[in-house]
Design a protein that fits this description.
Distance between the termini: 37 Å
Protein name: ascorbate ferrireductase (transmembrane)
Structural class: mainly alpha
Largest sheet: 2 strands, parallel
Oligomer: single chain
Shape: globular
Strand order of the largest sheet: 1-2
Number of helices: 6
InterPro entries: CYB561/CYBRD1-like, Cyt_b561/ferric_Rdtase_TM
Keywords: Electron transport, Heme, Iron, Membrane, Metal-binding, Transmembrane, Transmembrane helix, Transport
Catalytic activity: Fe(3+)(out) + L-ascorbate(in) = monodehydro-L-ascorbate radical(in) + Fe(2+)(out) + H(+)
Membrane topology: Multi-pass membrane protein
């Protein structure tokens, strides 16, 4: 059930928070963690690829894809293509970011999939892919019959939001996990880096809350008037 609120003004806050969260992740990985690199003698730089790609891809671009129907004053068919393409980009970046962390673990001889963060993260990216493929086949090409599309749409929306919540939960758990590792190695619990990581999580959650809110809102219908002007 949709909430009778015009979501368009809120989409500007979504854009701002998304950009802010990306900037914060870049500051963290470049200024505090030393930068990003796919091939380097310092393997920690390979780890840094993971949070950057996941934040940009599945969190921000994925969120923008969800609200594209509410934030873009374009024809429905154009918005459908944009929605599909943005989700594809988000999924590709998410896959690359996931591959980076597996590669980092292999390089450092660390076991994979040992934490709840990794479990929910893998589940989320697999379900994200299933959601994209189903949406493409049913709503784009070859396309289901009108009855199937009508029945599928509410479930497509609900399942998509559920997967997105899983993605955000995985991200926040990942920030907490990495920060805990750093603090166990001596990082100050109330230092600037710790505050930056925690506030990145806060901004990410606020971004996601507004994305979901925009997704379930629509402008209220005009009030019915039972009289005509004289």
């Amino acid at each position: 059930m949709e909430v009778g609120v015009n979501p368009f003004p809120l989409t500007f806050a979504v854009h701002f928070l998304g950009i802010a969260s990306i900037a914060m992740v870049f500051v963290w990985t470049i200024h505090y963690l030393g930068g990003l690199a796919w091939n380097s003698s310092d393997k920690s730089l390979l780890f840094n690829v993971h949070p950057v790609f996941m934040q940009i891809g599945l969190i921000v671009i994925g969120g923008e894809a969800i609200i594209s129907y509410k934030s873009l004053p374009l024809e429905k068919e154009v918005k459908k293509v944009i929605h599909l393409v943005l989700h594809a980009i988000a999924l590709i970046l998410g896959i690359v970011g996931t591959y980076a962390i597996f590669l980092y673990h292999d390089e450092k001889d660390i076991v994979n999939l040992y934490s709840f963060h990794s479990w929910i993260g893998i589940a989320a990216i697999v379900l994200y892919g299933v959601q994209w493929i189903y949406g493409f086949v049913i709503f784009m090409y070859p396309g289901g019959d009108p009855c199937l599309r009508s029945v599928s749409m509410p479930w497509h929306i609900v399942f998509g939001l559920m997967v997105y919540v899983m993605v955000v939960a995985a991200a926040v758990l990942g920030y907490l996990e990495k920060l805990t590792f750093l603090e166990n190695k001596g990082l100050a619990k109330f230092g600037s880096q710790a505050y930056l990581v925690n506030f990145t999580s806060v901004v990410t959650v606020l971004f996601a809350v507004l994305v979901v809110f925009c997704a379930v809102t629509s402008p209220p219908a005009p009030a019915y008037e039972d009289y005509a002007p004289i």
